[in-house]
Structures are given as C-alpha cells and as structure tokens.
Design a protein that fits this description.
By secondary structure, this protein is of the alpha/beta class. The protein contains 13 helices and 13 strands. The chain has 2 domains: 201 residues, Glycogen Phosphorylase B (Rossmann fold); 153 residues, Glycogen Phosphorylase B (Rossmann fold), CATH 3.40.50. The strands form 2 sheets. The protein has a 7-stranded parallel sheet with strand order 3-2-1-4-5-6-7, with helices on both faces.
C-alpha cells in the first residue's frame, strides 16, 4: 500500500513553543520509510519563520503558503488527488480549511487532534481551528487521547470513526547517551498557566528544600515575573537535537500535565515517549490511563506532592533508577515507536475506506475557498 498523504498542520519547521513539530516529524518520517508519498503544508508565519530548527525532511516534502487563498491556488490538485488529507489542530483558519478540504478532496479526510482535551473543553465555547459541526464531515478523527475518548467523540459529536493516535519519538534522535548527570531533576516544556501549579509543587518546592541539589527547567514563554530558586537553572529553548543530552544530564525528568488532560485522562505527552526513549527515569503527576502507557513503579514513578518527589530523588538507588529507565525504554520499543504509529494510521485508513465504500452518496465536490468563509 503506497498512499499519497497530505498533512496541513500547525508547524513542522519549528519546535519553538510548539510540541506538534516533533510529533509530526516522527510520524511523517515513519510514513515515508514505509514508501508513502507525504507532503506537509504549513502557513508561513513570522513566529515559526524566525525560530526554525528543522533540516531537510528525509523522504517527504514541506511546502509553505502565505495566505488562506493560496491553498486552492497552489495545492488544489495535490489535495484533490491525495488518498488521505489530514488537517491538524491549531491550524490557522482551520475551520475554513476543513470546510474546503472535506468538500474538495476525493480521497479520505481526517482531523488529527494533537490537543484533544483542550479541543473537547473548548468546542462549546467556540474554537478557531475546529467546530462541532465540522467533525462529522471528516472520515476519521485521530485523537491525542485514547481510552474512552474516541468513543465519546463518535457518540457526542457524530464522528463516523474516531481512533487514538498517540505521539511518538524519533528513535534515531531520541536514544540513550552517557554524559554524567548534572541535575537531580529537570523539566522540559513550554509555559502554561494551568501547568505551572504542578511544576511549582513537583519541582520548585522540592528544589527549595533540597538546596544542595541542582534542578533545571527548559522551555519558552515563561513570564519574567516568575522567581526561580537559586539552585534551579533556566534554559529558554532547546532544539530537538539537544533533547537527548539534556535528558541524559538529569537523574530524573518530570512530566507535568495540563488540567484538561489530567481531567480527561489517557493523554500522554510526547515528552513521556521522548524521555523514555532516551533512557531517563520519569517522575509524573497522576492521571487516568497513565497505566496503559507505562506500568507505575516498574516503568514510571508517580508523585502528587513535594514529599513524594523528594523521597524518590533522595531514596532510589542508582541500580534501581537505571533498571526502571531501561524497562520504560523497552516498553517504547515494543509499543510506541513511530513505525507503530504509521502502521496504526494505515490500518485506520483501510477501515475508514471500507466504511466510506458502504455509505451511498458519500463523495467530494470541488468548491472555492475564500477568506470570508473563516
């Protein structure tokens, strides 16, 4: 099976403040290795243009466009002839693009929601990138969240087919390295208002108590008003090629989860897969469904308060720390590689194509896309 796949996504060229980039890169490279023809379309916006950290794609293409009207003019034939067109969450003018793509594409269409908990929490209030009315028009809804969530999307919002498609880590990049750890605990992530209380509780408070230990927080968009303990280092941004060494320099790395994702559950961050692939032990906050990704105490450590973090940092032997990290890495290799995700997407495509073939009159008709339709 060799598919022509077009993905219209937030950004693949820049990971600055954008967790989508590494997720897309890993998936698209895996699809290309499986001999699919893949093109990624990205709006050329100043923020990502000024912070690009991506070299030439391996076996797939990136095309940039300036305005909404460029899509039908430059890529109308590409989209019409594709076997599968995927629109990602947070795409600028996403509703207008989805309206046009679902009417114009002759092949299957999918919405890839890398922000499912945020999407579901905001649909009733209105979002810029997807609407409840648009969901049934996609043949397939690919969800960042698993467990019962895809069934909810089908039952409540009328998706004809919703399936989980978790993130993954490029194993050629995210792999163990051997520098001497310099931080007892670290965290990698863009600032978020609803994630910051967890970071305060599970990293900054332990840092204040463990004054002889070193800690680090890496990520962009943190407000200048924040006061960091003296033993907490700060790094504004790390490009993906710097992540493996960064993880290796931590004895433990922290995963903290946004409130909507903790509430909905079954929503593993890409950082979980990346850190585990690098062989770094993970301390995570608790949320429903985490045990379906990693086995607690055996492959991942859970904490709800500063005292639990301190006990882990101070109390775990080096032998047990490394054994836990290796078990998590082996879990990644068995179940959560980019190749696993590519194979999942192929199986979903075949299932959705079979479903569409059984629905009379479900076909596409071309139309013109205008900025006024946003």
């Amino acid at each position: 099976m060799n598919l022509k796949i077009v993905v219209i996504g937030l950004s693949v060229t820049s990971s600055w403040g954008n967790g989508h980039a590494t997720t897309y890169r890993a998936l698209l490279e895996a699809l290309a290795r499986r001999e699919h023809q893949v093109t990624f379309l990205e709006r050329d916006v100043p923020w990502y243009r000024n912070h690009r950290d991506f070299t030439k794609p391996s076996g797939w293409n990136v095309r940039l466009y300036q305005r909404l009207e460029d899509l039908p003019r430059l890529f109308g034939s590409l989209i019409a002839e594709a076997n599968l067109v995927i629109i990602g969450s947070y795409v600028p003018d996403g509703i207008a693009i989805a309206d046009w793509v679902t009417a114009h594409a002759e092949g299957l269409t999918a919405f890839y929601d890398i922000d499912t908990p945020v999407t579901l929490a905001g649909l009733d209030r209105g979002l810029d990138y997807i609407s409840a009315a648009m969901i049934p028009r996609f043949d397939l809804y690919l969800s960042f969240s698993g467990g019962p969530v895809p069934g909810m999307i089908e039952d409540i919002y009328g998706s004809p087919m919703a399936r989980p498609l978790y993130c993954s880590a490029n194993l050629e990049l995210y792999r163990p390295s051997n520098p001497t750890p310099k931080w007892s605990l670290g965290y990698l992530g863009t600032y978020s208002d609803d994630r910051q209380p967890q970071l305060d509780k599970l990293l900054l408070t332990p840092a204040r108590e463990l004054s002889n230990e070193r800690f680090i927080v890496a990520g962009s968009k943190y407000p200048e008003r924040l006061v960091w303990p003296g033993n907490v280092d700060r790094t504004e941004h790390l490009a993906p090629h710097e992540h493996p060494v960064f993880y290796a320099q931590q004895r433990f790395t922290l995963n903290v989860t946004r409130a909507d994702m903790r509430s909905l559950g079954f929503s593993p961050s890409v950082r979980l897969f990346e850190a585990a692939a690098c062989g770094t032990p993970i301390i995570s906050d608790r949320w429903p469904g985490l045990e379906t990704i990693f086995t607690p105490t055996s492959e991942i450590l859970l904490a709800s308060c500063p005292r639990e973090v301190i006990e882990i940092v101070n109390g775990m032997s080096e032998e047990n720390r490394l054994a836990l990290a290796e078990r998590a890495r082996q879990r990644i290799l068995r179940e959560h590689t980019p190749d696993h995700r590519a194979r999942q997407l192929e199986s979903y495509y075949l299932e959705a194509a079979s479903r569409r073939a059984k629905v009379p009159g479900r076909s596409a008709a071309g139309r013109t896309l205008h900025a006024a339709e946003v």
